[in-house]
Amino acid sequence: MQIPSLPVSDSPASVQFDFATGLFTPFVDVVERRVNDLQEMFHDQAAVGELLAGDNPVVYEIRYHPFLTTTSDMGLGVTRIYPGQIGIEYYMTKGHFHERTDQPEIYFCVRGEGFLLLETRAGDFEAVPWKAGTITHIPPLWAHRVVNTGTDLLVFVASYHLAAGHDYAPILARGFAQIVVEQEGVPQLVPNPRRR
Questions:
Q1: Which of helix, strand or coil describes residue 160?
Q2: How many domains, in total, are found in the chain?
Q3: For tag attachment on the chain, is the N or C end more exposed, with fewer CB atoms within 10 Å?
């Protein structure tokens, strides 16, 4: 698949990943998501408002590198989720389905701890405990979101087809079946109040 404005190379290509920082070079693009980019995703809107009235911190960032050839469209993404909470809910990624229903993805947690939340449109839900070294295959038709429950960065590597696309609308509208919150000092999965 040819995607305009991105380089195409039929030669082997490599990037260099730094396990200590969770950064790699070279990368083509970086996307930074702050509280204001995710405000509708969190349950405690009063806590969101307090943060937005202050410094609007970075929740996570993603660095991308496409590996485009004349016959393929692999992409690499590395996400770094900062430790933190909004109210009692832990920092998390936006979460998405793929626009194309035949597209899987592979996530590899290389640092930190948390959960990978997975859900189908039919309502099947799974929460996979995550720590460094966990590799998860995300089948087509499963939405996915990563939650950082630790006190350090959570870093994961994603491998996917660029043609998969992102569908954020269902997650924006309803969230996942469960949210991850701190209760008595430990992470807990609880039913999403938005689903009542």
A1: strand
A2: 1
A3: C
